[in-house]
Amino acid sequence: MDASQALRILEHRDQAVAWLRQIGIDDCETAWDLMNQIAVAGMPADLMGVLYTHLQQALPDTASADMGFCNVLRFVLGSRSPMGFACLCERDPDTLPTLLQIVSCSQQLADDLIQDPESFDLLRLTEGQPVAREVLIKELLTDIEPIVANEREAIRLMRQFRRREMMRIAFGDLVRKLPVDTTARQTSYLADAVCQAALHTAWAKVATARGPAPQEGAGIRRFVILGFGRHGGMEMNYGGQLQIAGVYEGGGRSDGARSARHQEYYDRVMQELIRVLTEDSTLGPPLAVDVSSRPGGSDGPLVISAKDAVRYYDVSGRTWERQGLVKARVVAGDVELGETLLGQLQHWVYRRYLSAAEIAEIRSLKRRIEERHDCATATAMQTVDKGIDDVEFIVQFLQLLNGAELPRVRTTNTLEAVAALEQSGCLTMQERSIFEQNYDFLRSVKHRAQSVLSSGDEQLSSQDWLRLAMHWNFTSAEQLTADINTQAAEIDKVIGHLLHDTFGDEATVDPETDLVLDPKPSPERLQQVLAPYPFRDVSGAYRDLMALATEQIPFLSPRRCRYFLASIARPLLEAIVKAPDPDATIASLARVSDSIGGKAVLWELFSVNPPTLEMYVRLCATSPYLSDILTSHPGMIDELMDSLILEKLPSRESLQQTLEDLCQGAEDQSLIIHSFKNANHLRVGVRDILQKDDVKESHRALSDIAEVCLRKVTDGEFEQLVTKHGRPMQGEGQARKPCEFIIVALGKLGGREPNYHSDLDVLFLYESDGKTQATAGSGTATSNQYFFCELGKRILKAMNHLGPTGKLFDMDRQVRPSGEHGPLAVSLDQFARYMKESADLSERQALCKARVVYGSESARATTDRIMFTALTQPPVAKDELAEIRRRRLQLEETASERNLKRMPGGTMDIEFIVQMRQMQTAQTDPDVWQTGTLDALDALAKANQLSDDDQTYLAESYRFLRRVEAGLRLMNTSARHDLPGDAPDADKLAYLLHCSSAAHVTEEVQKFTRENRVRFERLCNASSVSV
User: Fold this and answer.
1) What is the pTM of this model?
2) In this predicted model, what pLDDT tens digit does every residue of 203-229 receive, in sequence order?
3) Which of 308, 719, 966, 1006 is deepest in the core (most CB within 10 A)?
4) 332: which DSSP letter?
């Protein structure tokens, strides 16, 4: 094109459009506008002709004529001398085709070049040739050093350096067609240089603010940045992120006024480094930084000492972290520290012998590879990504399996590892060839997609794919995608063959098992595996499931914990979703399991004994009382295991011996007694949930626990008072003998039928009046009454004391042997006199459930005779029976309609029936005086005071209602005897009781209580007639 043609095109729009279309331009308006701007800028017509001639000749070979043409004109307009550039094109025919190649294939690269036109000369000078890592680092640090204190300027210089070097790398890749491995290494080296400069800048800022680094002269030599993933493997692409972790070494404090401990100091350095790398700038996009590869993953500390890192990996490291360390290398900071650390970790990464837990994780890793291998891909770009990932994944997998025996395969770079694996006999030459060639091709596609299109977007248009295809001289996008699919399929085939040879065919493994072993499942994977389970919050349920896989106690093996949890993951989840509220249940499981410690022991037990798994889930789902025992008293793994495994409830004798052994030699026994009570309530509660025992046996065990605790407290307080006042005696002179202390249990404790929260009603008695006998070292003597009243006060205080572990038991301070206004303790004579002369009907009735729980055999016998006489003398009168019935009806007036105890037909109906018959007949048939309701029903039937039908029905009813009551107490409901009024609690109660539904529980309660009231009225009337 000569000067006259150039002028005509500028003067006549129609001629310009025709010419532009002739050379392949679609956006003629933009192109013509830029041509006019060139003319306005003062370029002579002859030079314009030269420029447009060169463009016309070179455009047919470009990927995008529009992009290339317009970007060249923008570059010319932005250059220092548009005329000078046109003259250069005239002198050097290669100049414009070279520029056109760059700006027609990558808009990002074109924009960078247009913004910095002088960098084009540098590109032509360097020809995009590789630069050594050390040279890049030295050059950037030299530029940074004078301005390191000016953070903004330092960041600007780093971005400028990175932009310039990225243009050099892209030039070598796109124009000079350098191998993709060279491009990837150069990109990784550049990332190292920028990371080193960012560390230098961050270090300077922290040192200014907080003083020099800990330990004089340490400087950066005490801190290292490790690179992982493709950064570590020197395989970064244009859009790759920096996967880094910070490690420090040493102890002590910094010297500045705002001194900081090592962890704080280096943590701040790391925070500043990340900010420097990721802060937005006008000089190009920030680097993406990922620090999740650090020890502990996203939950671990931002930086860690070298010693702690080694300790973490040895104790808690997982297979995915071993896989990550395969590609770890030093990218910035103290090389010696980093190399030493990585060397120390080699024995852990490449293990010669594997535990069962590690083998399970490796097999899970293998199954994840197979799932990727089998996954159908929606787009060609997804196929590219999957093919690249698959090669890297399988190579790391083979390195893990063979690295212990074959040190030569221990390399961070995938292609180097492929070569080493083939040379070591782990791959065939054909497999190596497929991996190398196909991996190289797919990475090239990925690079082109990011550089040519400035995007890693999977949703590429057909025109985008056509432009991409032209880089490999394909005539259509379909040819490129077909080649991608073919090469990815070849990779799949090799991977399938390698996995089969390594492991053979495995039995089917539950997806829940692999979910537990998977270090980073995708959201889609979570939804897929947990979809069959009706969790409202799937992510929350997964977090709780992972909490179950983690030991909170440092010296316990997390690998073993995870392994055994994985083995029971499916039955555990199936058990959880049977609970009324699966989300709350799994959260409770996580909370309770964290407190007990030694989770692996539990999961192992559940794997061999499935019923214990069901019980544990039921406990956590429905019993806040037992759950709170476990969470409030950490480390109760042994007690829980005993509860799950032991086949019978403890006897009173064994309980007493156990508590004696625990308290032997202890100065403060209160915490021991509390722990004893909690451990044994747990044991009874677990068996209650499993419904292993009759309710009568459960009540007996709870009664025995309370008695043993009461006896131990009483013994301790008694000895302390003896030390203060001497031993109580009865009689005079040489005939004096020790005076016995007696405790009489009433109510539920007296009947050996308390629940988990029953109050303890007791009477304090002693044999006779007298004085204490002081001994050497004891204080002043006092009366027996004072001594035993003081003893009673101390017992009540100790039992009711609200300490850090709560109350031991609730004991009623108003229950007294001579009325609520009498002394706390009285002699047996005073007690007998009071019962004969002053006791009212209710006090006599209370003796139906009175039982001596503390005292010698002789004292017990004497007390029993007094109580029996008081119960039977004088015989109960007809009007007294009517009064008992009236009091029973009065008690239900203040009860809710759901109160199992006091509602019409509640357990009180049965207890009053029994007590009325006992008071009527005990004088003539003493055997009917049984303090337990169920024992008394049996005795009354045996004495023909109840029909067999009444005895059988009332016993069944009493057992059912008391079991429901026990369920309520395990649930720790605020209304201690009321059926739940809201649906969630009602459902939990039904689940706890192994009933089909809450409605079924309600129906059974109503059925029993209706019939109880019918029988109560009939038997009360019959009693009145028989008097």
Assistant:
1) 0.68
2) 999 988 887 766 544 444 589 999 999
3) 966
4) E
